[in-house]
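Minutes, project check-in
Item: structure for the 408-residue chain
Input as provided by the requester:
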Amino acid sequence: FDPCCGEGTAASLIGNALNCETWGVELSYRRAELAVQVLDKAYQGPMESTYVSPESIPLMFLNPPYETDTVEHKGRLEVVFLKRYTTAITRGGLLVYIIPQRILSNEDLAHHLASYYENVTIGKYKDSAYGQVIILATRRQLRVSPTKEAVNQIQNWTDQEIPVLASAKELGYFLLPAPKKWGSKPVEFVRTDWQDTEIIDATLISGAMNTRDWTDLFSPMQDEKKKMVPAMPLKKGHVAMLMASGMMGVMRLKDSSGEPLLVKGRVVKAQDTTEVKNDDGSISQIIKDRFVTTVSVIKSNQLKVIEDVNGLTEFMKEQGDQIAQFVLNKYQPLYNFDPTPEESRILDSLGKYRKPIPGQKPGLLPTQRHAAIALSRVVKKVGPGNVQGEMGCGVRLEAVRMKVCRRL
C-alpha cells in the first residue's frame, strides 16, 4: 500500500517483484489517472477520503509530502501520514519510510517510531535531491513507552553520516501474508467520500432538489394541506417579513407601464468590521453580523437587486398594493372580520357585567372580539393556538379566549 503513490511507479514495481496486490492513493488528478492503470486499486483524493482496515497491510511504502500543514496546522506532514497509517500495518508488517534526513530531529516523529516500530534500519541513496533517508522497520506486536535514549538515538541520525544503500547479502525482513479479515469483517480499502459524477447521479435520483424543502423555495407551500393559513389578515409588517424571508416565493407582478416583473425577496447576512486599540497598543478586530433585506427584480431586459433603504421604500410605494393583493390571494386568513351569527351571539354574552371603560359599553372591545373569534377558529382547525396580544387586547383576554373556545 502506497498512500502517496504518485503515478504508481514504486508500488507497481514492488507488486510485480513480490507478486502481490497493490493499492494506492494520490491527490493529483493527473498522476492518479496514471496510477489507476498500473495498480490493482487506486483512488484520487486526499488521504482523509479513503479507509483502510486496521492491521491489513503487510508492506507500507510511505513517501509522504515534505512540508508543513498550514491549513489545519497539524504540523509536519511526514509525521501526520505516518501516524495516520501506522494502524493499517499488520503487527510484524514492514514499513518503508522515505523522508528528508533533517526531519528525524522532530521529537514527535522519533517518539512515534520508537513506540510502534522495531528492527529499525536506515540508509540513503547515493544521490538524493532532498537529502532523503530510507527507514525500514517492522511494526511492534505491542506499543511500548520508549526511553529517552531510544528517542534520542533516532533524533541523532539527523547529524550522522547515513550509509548508502547497497544490495543486501542476506535477508533482513520477511513479509507476512495479507490477512483476509480484520476481526469478523473483510479487509477493505474503499473511498469514504463521493466523486463528482456520483454526487450528480445521486442528486438526480434522490437529492435535495426532489425534497419538499427545496421545491418550497421556488413555490412555497405547494401542498394545500400544508399551506400556511394565518388566523387574521396579515399586516404590513407580516407582508414585509414574508417577502424578505423568501417564503412568498417568486411573485409575478407588473410595473407602472404594464410590463411583467418577477420579484423575489430574501435576507442576506453581512459583516461589519471595526478596529479597536487595546491597552497594550495592539489592534483587535470586532466583527458584527447584520441582516440585510434584498429584493431582486427581473424585467425582460434587466436584473436589479434592491438592498438600500431608500430603494426598498420606493419599491414598496410603487408595488405595495400589488404585493398586498398577492399576499391576500396566497394566504387567505381563517377569520377576515366576518363573524358568524353564532359567534356574535356568544361574544355578546361575555363581559356584560364587567365595569365598562369610560366612554365604552359593557362587554368585549372590538379588538378583543376579533382576536377571540380568530383564536377559536385556529383551535377548531389545528388544535393549539397562541396569541401575541397587541395593545387593546386587554389583560382579561386570556379568560375570555378560554370561554369562547369552549363554547364555540
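Outcome recorded: The CA atoms of residues 365 and 398 lie 14 Å apart.
No further action items on this chain.
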